[in-house]
Predict the 3D structure of the following.
Amino acid sequence: MSKAVAVGYLMKVSASNVNASHTEGNVVVAKKVTLPDGGTIPYISGQAIRRMLRDRLEELGYVLSEPFAKVSGQEVTPPGRPWEFVDEDFFGYLDPSGGRRRTSPVRVSAAIGLFPFRGDRDLGTRSFGRFGQPMAAGGNMFETELYANLFKGAILVELDRIGVFEPLETGDSDERVLPEDERRRRLQALFEALNILWGGGRTARMLSDLSPKFIAYSRLKVKHPVFLEALVAHYEDNGYRLELEPLQNCLTKFADYREHTLFGLEPGIFGNEGEIREALAEYGEVLTVHEAIAKAKGDVAGLWKESSA
């Protein structure tokens, strides 16, 4: 029986600061992590990715739990009704009283830039003359760190926990399980939310399309984020090139645990597109990203049926 779905993806950011860290003076600083050699690469936090997925799920017609939470000072008590709210099902919750808690069955990595941060900044200005003040009053200036980069991310979905709620999670005396068709519908909606992903900060002036430009999907007999460290790229001849050896090694390593694998590749993104298609065809279908996500949604359509037979 399938235990998990693992997804690895690459998304392209042309010029943005999707998820800022903090402000140093008048500079909005990008989130970055330091490499062993002292260099830095930008990243988008897992919390930010989860926020974007929540927002896209809401756009797809799901009601989120947040408007129904109770706020008292610094404490937020969630409704704790994951059978009603897909975000509580996917991303978990914690009742500060300690009575109910759910660990997220949808595990999300940070999105990590594959290329170093180069120190680029966007300059913004505000003239007080636009607000009825004399030009002599001047204005103010601010800067925002930004980057052009390719980001890798991963998602691991624990299939046996989607739509399944233990007494500790709900406060009920018995386990509660959603109907199979609702569990499948929710999982398919998660894939669609990834397909239309966008968001983050400064979207008014640094809008970014964060939908995947490459995706690897695998339904597994075990729970493991198989693609987390397998996506590597370099820049050559004015284009990105996906490095195939780490991905092929990963696919071979987990061959005994992979039940169904497929890939999505957007045309015109990678300079070695033909090589990618030829090499990965050995392991599964290679489609466009939206076709791959549609196939993934179809693949999970058969889940849980055997348990009710």
